[in-house]
Automatic annotation (TrEMBL):
Annotated keywords: Membrane, Mitochondrion, Transmembrane, Transmembrane helix
Region (Disordered): 106-173
Main location (coarse class): mitochondrion
PANTHER family hit by this protein: HIG1 DOMAIN FAMILY MEMBER 1A, HYPOXIA-INDUCBILE GENE 1 HIG1 -RELATED
Name listed for the protein in its UniProt record: HIG1 domain-containing protein
GO cellular component: mitochondrial membrane
Organism field: Schizopora paradoxa
Signal peptide per UniProt: none
Biased composition (Basic and acidic residues): 106-126
Pfam families the record matches: HIG_1_N (PF04588)
Record has Transmembrane as a keyword: yes
Length: 173
């Protein structure tokens, strides 16, 4: 698109306007990334207390950023956005021009063909399904006996060397 046809603000101008209008959103994003970076630095230094503190700071910054985003949305669209009656903005949505009679006929023909194809596809897919939700050859079995449930499984029994249920994760090595 050439510049002489487009008269609105550029994308950069729109971004700068939004940053000026809602400065807490990018500030919160920067604070979140900074806290996460510091947490990674503390993790690299093996400072677990500092790591936990910076992760808590990240959660706080992220929560405040979400609050800032919601606040900015309420400022832009009003509280009706939460109630289902939000304004759609200052620009009107352009409507399509009315169809000519020949376009209407062609559209209705395509719609009818699509509906027939859908019906045929549905009939083909339904042929492979049983007529009801329960299969006719299904017979319920008895639940496993207590002896069957008490059989030790290597997946459910802890190994003798494990100190907790989650030691198999090996997160601390």
């Amino acid at each position: 698109m050439s510049d002489d046809l487009y008269e609105g603000p550029s994308r950069t101008d729109k971004i700068i306007a939004q940053l000026k209008k809602h400065p807490l959103v990018p500030g919160g994003m920067i604070a979140t990334c900074g806290a996460l970076g510091m947490a990674f630095r503390r993790l690299h230094q093996r400072d677990s207390t500092g790591y936990q503190r910076w992760l808590r700071a990240r959660v706080l910054a992220q929560g405040l950023t979400v609050v800032a985003i919601v606040f900015a949305g309420v400022q832009e669209f009003g509280t009706g956005a939460f109630m289902g009656s939000a304004k759609t903005g200052t620009q009107a949505v352009p409507s399509l021009p009315p169809m000519s009679p020949s376009e209407k006929v062609a559209f209705e023909k395509r719609m009818k063909e699509a509906e027939e194809a859908h019906d045929a596809e549905t009939r083909i897919l339904d042929q492979g399904k049983p007529s009801s939700s329960l299969r006719a050859d299904f017979t319920p079995t008895e639940p496993p006996s207590k002896a069957d449930r008490d059989v030790a499984s290597p997946l459910t029994q802890p190994s003798p060397s494990s100190s907790s249920r989650f030691s198999w994760l090996r997160l601390w090595k």
